[in-house]
Write a structure and sequence with these properties.
This protein is α/β, with parallel strands linked by helices. Helix content is 38%, strand content 16%. A 9-stranded mixed β-sheet has the order 5-4-3-6-2-1-9-10-11.
């Protein structure tokens, strides 16, 4: 029997299901001065990086491929500067799903976007931030961990993490507290290799994620890069592994979800929020009742 959206929303509120946020979770976020939507999905990121001009069809297929082309021509710093300017220096309006998460304050959230809205959602309480890194020396690991307390982030070792705090996992990085990103093909090759080898996820998270179930929000599953990241991050998931909200799923997406034990729900993020019965005026006050 198909699960009800209201039941999924309630499971997130209880902390029984882990939200996994894709680009569609940023739908509705705009530059308040211009009304321009935040670049989030692959196509919009490529166009923004190339000053609004499409790239060749081969490069337009996926942002990491386009970012690799820019890196080869202008250096890795050019890609990082674009991401810093987009997510670290510009102001974007909040999305309803992030306000809902701020109120729910789940104990574990995965966000493959590179913006800071999830971090802003937890600014009211201590939490642990994990971000992916790639192509770095001096460490065997492909992550950095920061603890949010006293209004700022402090870098910590994985053995010193407070296991009682909420975990925010942003594998593709973010500009805060300092910029780190997984963006180009070369970044993904390094990161995914270490993810498969077990060096891109802290030991405490490997234990915590066992038998967890996930709710995939705003994530299309047509591109191999995102599918490989997903597969390794949810390793050890429960049965079913989770539910993917996906309007008009393709046959390819259905087949992939079936192989991973993910049930497809033909709905969108807005449908979930509507089923939760949460009005816009109810979102932020719920933060004070979240127990975070």
């Amino acid at each position: 029997m198909p699960i009800e959206l209201s039941d999924l929303a309630a499971a997130v509120l209880r902390g029984d299901v882990v939200p996994y946020l894709g680009p569609g979770a940023l739908a509705g976020a705009v530059d308040p001065a211009t009304g321009e939507p935040i670049p989030a999905d692959s196509d919009s990121l490529i166009l923004a990086m190339n000053k609004g001009r499409p790239m060749s069809p081969r490069l337009m297929w996926e942002f990491p491929r386009a970012a690799m082309d820019v890196e080869l021509k202008r250096g890795r710093g050019a890609v990082n500067r674009f991401l810093d300017a987009t997510y670290g220096q510009r102001t974007w309006t909040r999305t309803s799903v992030h306000d809902w998460i701020a109120g729910a304050a789940p104990p574990y959230v995965i966000d493959i976007n590179r913006d800071t809205q999830l971090q802003d959602s937890y600014a009211h309480c201590p939490h642990t931030l994990i971000r992916g890194i790639a192509r770095v020396g001096g460490t065997d690991y492909r992550f950095r961990i920061h603890s949010w307390r006293d209004g700022r982030y402090h870098e910590v070792d994985q053995d010193d993490v407070d296991p009682t705090l909420p975990i925010l996992f942003k594998p593709m990085g973010s500009p805060r507290p300092d910029a780190t990103y997984i963006a180009s093909d070369a970044d993904y090759v390094d990161y995914i290799t270490e993810l498969m080898g077990g060096f891109a996820i802290p030991s405490f998270l490997k234990e915590y994620r066992q038998q967890r179930q996930y709710l995939f929000l705003g994530l299309r599953m047509t591109r191999d890069t995102e599918r490989m990241v997903l597969s390794d991050i949810i390793y050890g998931a429960g049965e079913p592994a989770g539910w993917a909200l996906m309007p008009q799923p393709t046959d390819k997406e259905r087949r992939f979800c079936q192989t991973k034990g993910i049930e497809v729900v033909e709905a969108d993020v807005s449908d979930l929020l509507a089923a939760a019965g949460v009005a816009d005026d109810d979102l932020i006050p719920a933060v004070h009742e979240a127990g975070c």
